[in-house]
Protein backbone atom coordinates (compact mmCIF):
# COMPACT_ATOMS: atom_id res chain seq x y z
CA UNK A 1 0.00 0.00 0.00
CA UNK A 2 1.28 3.43 -0.95
CA UNK A 3 1.61 5.57 2.18
CA UNK A 4 0.17 8.98 1.32
CA UNK A 5 1.18 10.72 4.55
CA UNK A 6 4.66 9.32 5.03
CA UNK A 7 6.69 11.56 7.34
CA UNK A 8 3.91 14.04 8.03
CA UNK A 9 3.00 15.19 11.54
CA UNK A 10 -0.72 15.49 12.26
CA UNK A 11 -2.85 16.63 15.19
CA UNK A 12 -6.46 15.50 15.61
CA UNK A 13 -8.70 17.00 18.28
CA UNK A 14 -11.35 14.69 19.69
CA UNK A 15 -9.15 11.88 18.43
CA UNK A 16 -10.06 8.91 20.64
CA UNK A 17 -13.71 8.39 19.63
CA UNK A 18 -15.86 8.34 16.53
CA UNK A 19 -14.68 10.16 13.44
CA UNK A 20 -11.49 11.49 15.03
CA UNK A 21 -10.43 8.00 16.08
CA UNK A 22 -11.08 6.58 12.61
CA UNK A 23 -9.00 9.35 11.04
CA UNK A 24 -6.16 8.80 13.52
CA UNK A 25 -6.02 5.09 12.69
CA UNK A 26 -5.86 5.69 8.94
CA UNK A 27 -3.33 8.51 9.27
CA UNK A 28 -1.06 6.12 11.15
CA UNK A 29 -1.57 3.44 8.48
CA UNK A 30 -0.48 5.97 5.87
CA UNK A 31 2.76 6.80 7.65
CA UNK A 32 1.89 9.91 9.66
CA UNK A 33 2.97 10.64 13.21
CA UNK A 34 -0.18 11.55 15.09
CA UNK A 35 -1.03 13.48 18.24
CA UNK A 36 -4.59 13.10 19.48
CA UNK A 37 -6.28 15.48 21.86
CA UNK A 38 -8.94 14.17 24.21
CA UNK A 39 -10.89 15.48 27.18
CA UNK A 40 -8.86 15.13 30.40
CA UNK A 41 -10.94 12.52 32.20
CA UNK A 42 -10.62 8.84 33.04
CA UNK A 43 -13.02 7.58 30.38
CA UNK A 44 -11.17 9.38 27.60
CA UNK A 45 -7.83 8.14 28.91
CA UNK A 46 -9.16 4.57 28.74
CA UNK A 47 -10.32 5.17 25.18
CA UNK A 48 -6.82 6.35 24.28
CA UNK A 49 -5.32 3.20 25.77
CA UNK A 50 -7.71 1.10 23.69
CA UNK A 51 -6.62 3.08 20.62
CA UNK A 52 -3.00 2.28 21.43
CA UNK A 53 -3.88 -1.42 21.57
CA UNK A 54 -5.85 -1.21 18.33
CA UNK A 55 -3.05 0.32 16.25
CA UNK A 56 -0.40 -2.11 17.53
CA UNK A 57 3.15 -1.33 16.40
CA UNK A 58 2.02 2.00 14.94
CA UNK A 59 1.53 3.24 18.52
CA UNK A 60 5.19 4.34 18.47
CA UNK A 61 4.01 7.16 16.17
CA UNK A 62 1.05 8.09 18.40
CA UNK A 63 0.86 10.41 21.40
CA UNK A 64 -2.01 11.77 23.49
CA UNK A 65 -2.23 15.38 24.67
CA UNK A 66 -5.23 15.67 27.00
CA UNK A 67 -6.98 19.01 27.34
CA UNK A 68 -10.37 20.73 27.25
CA UNK A 69 -10.56 22.16 23.74
CA UNK A 70 -13.09 24.77 24.87
CA UNK A 71 -10.27 26.52 26.74
CA UNK A 72 -8.27 28.96 24.56
CA UNK A 73 -4.88 27.80 25.89
CA UNK A 74 -5.47 24.15 25.03
CA UNK A 75 -4.68 24.54 21.34
CA UNK A 76 -1.35 26.22 22.02
CA UNK A 77 -0.41 23.54 24.52
CA UNK A 78 -1.42 20.84 22.05
CA UNK A 79 0.79 22.27 19.30
CA UNK A 80 3.72 22.81 21.67
CA UNK A 81 3.61 19.31 23.11
CA UNK A 82 3.30 17.75 19.67
CA UNK A 83 6.38 19.68 18.55
CA UNK A 84 8.22 18.44 21.62
CA UNK A 85 7.45 14.84 20.68
CA UNK A 86 7.71 14.88 16.89
CA UNK A 87 9.89 17.89 16.04
CA UNK A 88 9.14 21.45 15.08
CA UNK A 89 7.06 20.74 11.99
CA UNK A 90 3.25 20.46 11.86
CA UNK A 91 1.78 19.33 8.55
CA UNK A 92 -1.86 18.54 9.27
CA UNK A 93 -4.37 19.82 11.81
CA UNK A 94 -7.82 18.24 12.04
CA UNK A 95 -10.24 20.24 14.17
CA UNK A 96 -12.71 17.50 15.00
CA UNK A 97 -13.69 17.86 18.67
CA UNK A 98 -17.32 18.74 19.18
CA UNK A 99 -20.45 18.11 21.20
CA UNK A 100 -24.09 17.72 20.22
CA UNK A 101 -26.85 17.38 22.80
CA UNK A 102 -30.34 17.54 21.35
CA UNK A 103 -32.66 20.05 23.01
CA UNK A 104 -35.94 21.90 22.45
CA UNK A 105 -35.45 25.48 21.28
CA UNK A 106 -38.04 26.99 23.61
CA UNK A 107 -36.62 25.41 26.75
CA UNK A 108 -32.89 25.04 26.06
CA UNK A 109 -30.75 26.28 28.93
CA UNK A 110 -28.14 29.03 28.43
CA UNK A 111 -25.46 26.75 29.88
CA UNK A 112 -25.93 24.21 27.07
CA UNK A 113 -25.93 26.91 24.40
CA UNK A 114 -22.73 28.46 25.76
CA UNK A 115 -21.03 25.09 26.24
CA UNK A 116 -21.80 24.08 22.65
CA UNK A 117 -20.48 27.35 21.24
CA UNK A 118 -17.39 27.27 23.48
CA UNK A 119 -16.47 23.76 22.35
CA UNK A 120 -17.60 23.62 18.72
CA UNK A 121 -16.70 27.13 17.60
CA UNK A 122 -14.49 28.99 20.07
CA UNK A 123 -12.40 25.92 20.85
CA UNK A 124 -11.97 25.16 17.17
CA UNK A 125 -11.05 28.77 16.40
CA UNK A 126 -8.26 29.05 18.96
CA UNK A 127 -6.87 25.58 18.25
CA UNK A 128 -6.80 26.28 14.52
CA UNK A 129 -5.14 29.63 15.21
CA UNK A 130 -2.42 27.92 17.24
CA UNK A 131 -1.84 25.36 14.48
CA UNK A 132 -1.74 28.06 11.82
CA UNK A 133 0.85 30.08 13.74
CA UNK A 134 3.15 27.05 13.78
CA UNK A 135 2.54 26.28 10.10
CA UNK A 136 3.12 29.90 9.07
CA UNK A 137 6.45 30.25 10.87
CA UNK A 138 8.04 26.85 10.20
CA UNK A 139 10.60 26.40 7.43
CA UNK A 140 9.28 26.01 4.83
CA UNK A 141 5.83 27.30 5.78
CA UNK A 142 2.71 25.35 4.87
CA UNK A 143 0.27 22.71 5.94
CA UNK A 144 -3.29 21.46 5.74
CA UNK A 145 -6.07 22.43 8.16
CA UNK A 146 -9.28 20.41 8.09
CA UNK A 147 -12.35 21.68 9.92
CA UNK A 148 -15.03 19.15 10.78
CA UNK A 149 -18.24 20.88 9.82
CA UNK A 150 -21.46 18.96 9.11
CA UNK A 151 -24.34 18.59 6.70
CA UNK A 152 -26.04 20.53 9.51
CA UNK A 153 -24.21 23.60 8.21
CA UNK A 154 -26.48 23.47 5.17
CA UNK A 155 -29.82 22.36 6.62
CA UNK A 156 -31.87 23.04 9.73
CA UNK A 157 -32.53 20.80 12.71
CA UNK A 158 -35.46 21.44 15.04
CA UNK A 159 -33.65 20.10 18.11
CA UNK A 160 -30.22 21.35 17.00
CA UNK A 161 -30.76 25.12 16.98
CA UNK A 162 -27.70 25.60 19.20
CA UNK A 163 -25.58 23.10 17.23
CA UNK A 164 -26.19 23.83 13.54
CA UNK A 165 -24.96 27.45 13.78
CA UNK A 166 -21.62 26.23 15.14
CA UNK A 167 -21.17 23.89 12.19
CA UNK A 168 -22.08 26.62 9.72
CA UNK A 169 -19.47 28.75 11.49
CA UNK A 170 -16.79 26.08 11.00
CA UNK A 171 -17.53 26.03 7.28
CA UNK A 172 -17.26 29.83 7.18
CA UNK A 173 -14.08 29.73 9.27
CA UNK A 174 -12.43 27.38 6.78
CA UNK A 175 -13.37 29.67 3.90
CA UNK A 176 -11.99 32.75 5.65
CA UNK A 177 -8.81 31.09 6.89
CA UNK A 178 -8.21 29.80 3.35
CA UNK A 179 -8.12 33.45 2.30
CA UNK A 180 -6.00 34.54 5.26
CA UNK A 181 -3.45 31.73 5.19
CA UNK A 182 -2.94 30.97 1.51
CA UNK A 183 0.12 33.23 1.41
CA UNK A 184 1.75 30.83 3.88
CA UNK A 185 0.91 27.81 1.70
CA UNK A 186 -1.62 26.67 4.30
CA UNK A 187 -4.69 25.01 2.86
CA UNK A 188 -7.98 25.11 4.80
CA UNK A 189 -10.92 22.88 3.93
CA UNK A 190 -14.10 21.61 5.55
CA UNK A 191 -15.48 18.09 5.78
CA UNK A 192 -19.26 17.87 6.09
CA UNK A 193 -20.35 14.48 7.42
CA UNK A 194 -23.94 13.40 6.98
CA UNK A 195 -25.59 11.03 9.44
CA UNK A 196 -22.68 9.10 10.89
CA UNK A 197 -23.11 6.55 13.68
CA UNK A 198 -21.05 7.96 16.53
CA UNK A 199 -21.43 8.43 20.28
CA UNK A 200 -22.97 11.86 19.60
CA UNK A 201 -26.12 10.47 18.00
CA UNK A 202 -26.38 6.90 19.28
CA UNK A 203 -29.33 7.80 21.51
CA UNK A 204 -31.17 9.48 18.65
CA UNK A 205 -30.59 6.56 16.27
CA UNK A 206 -31.72 4.04 18.88
CA UNK A 207 -35.23 4.85 17.64
CA UNK A 208 -35.69 2.15 14.97
CA UNK A 209 -38.37 4.08 13.13
CA UNK A 210 -36.20 7.19 12.86
CA UNK A 211 -33.17 5.13 11.83
CA UNK A 212 -35.14 3.42 9.03
CA UNK A 213 -36.46 6.79 7.89
CA UNK A 214 -32.93 8.19 7.68
CA UNK A 215 -31.64 5.14 5.83
CA UNK A 216 -34.50 5.49 3.35
CA UNK A 217 -33.47 9.06 2.54
CA UNK A 218 -29.83 8.17 1.84
CA UNK A 219 -29.23 7.11 -1.79
CA UNK A 220 -26.47 4.70 -0.75
CA UNK A 221 -28.98 3.03 1.57
CA UNK A 222 -27.05 3.06 4.82
CA UNK A 223 -25.96 5.32 7.63
CA UNK A 224 -22.35 6.44 7.59
CA UNK A 225 -19.61 4.93 9.73
CA UNK A 226 -16.70 6.92 11.21
CA UNK A 227 -14.31 5.18 8.81
CA UNK A 228 -16.18 6.75 5.89
CA UNK A 229 -14.56 10.08 6.81
CA UNK A 230 -11.02 8.71 6.93
CA UNK A 231 -10.47 8.56 3.17
CA UNK A 232 -11.59 12.15 2.54
CA UNK A 233 -9.45 13.28 5.49
CA UNK A 234 -6.41 11.53 3.99
CA UNK A 235 -7.06 13.21 0.64
CA UNK A 236 -7.23 16.68 2.19
CA UNK A 237 -4.11 16.01 4.27
CA UNK A 238 -2.06 14.62 1.41
CA UNK A 239 -0.28 16.18 -1.52
CA UNK A 240 -3.07 14.93 -3.78
CA UNK A 241 -5.07 18.00 -2.68
CA UNK A 242 -2.21 20.47 -3.10
CA UNK A 243 -4.44 22.90 -5.05
CA UNK A 244 -7.56 22.48 -2.92
CA UNK A 245 -8.35 25.17 -0.37
CA UNK A 246 -11.52 26.87 0.81
CA UNK A 247 -13.47 23.81 -0.29
CA UNK A 248 -16.29 21.89 1.36
CA UNK A 249 -16.61 18.15 0.90
CA UNK A 250 -19.92 16.48 1.74
CA UNK A 251 -19.55 12.92 3.01
CA UNK A 252 -23.19 11.97 3.40
CA UNK A 253 -24.05 9.05 1.12
CA UNK A 254 -25.99 11.48 -1.09
CA UNK A 255 -28.41 12.59 1.64
CA UNK A 256 -28.21 16.31 0.88
CA UNK A 257 -29.10 16.01 -2.80
CA UNK A 258 -31.96 13.55 -2.31
CA UNK A 259 -35.18 15.58 -2.24
CA UNK A 260 -37.55 12.59 -2.31
UniProtKB/TrEMBL annotation:
| Keyword Protein transport found | no
The Gene Ontology terms for molecular function here are: oxidoreductase activity, acting on the CH-OH group of donors, NAD or NADP as acceptor; quinone binding
Annotated InterPro entries = NAD(P)-bd_dom_sf, SDR_fam
Query: Does Cell inner membrane appear among the keywords?
Result: no
Which key words tag this protein in UniProt? NADP, Oxidoreductase, Rhamnose metabolism
PANTHER family recorded for this chain?
(3R)-3-HYDROXYACYL-COA DEHYDROGENASE, SHORT-CHAIN DEHYDROGENASES/REDUCTASES FAMILY MEMBER
The UniProt similarity line reads:
Belongs to the short-chain dehydrogenases/reductases (SDR) family.
Q: Which protein are we looking at?
A: Uncharacterized protein
Organism, scientific name: Neohortaea acidophila
Q: What are the top taxonomic ranks of the organism? A: Eukaryota, Fungi, Dikarya, Ascomycota, Pezizomycotina
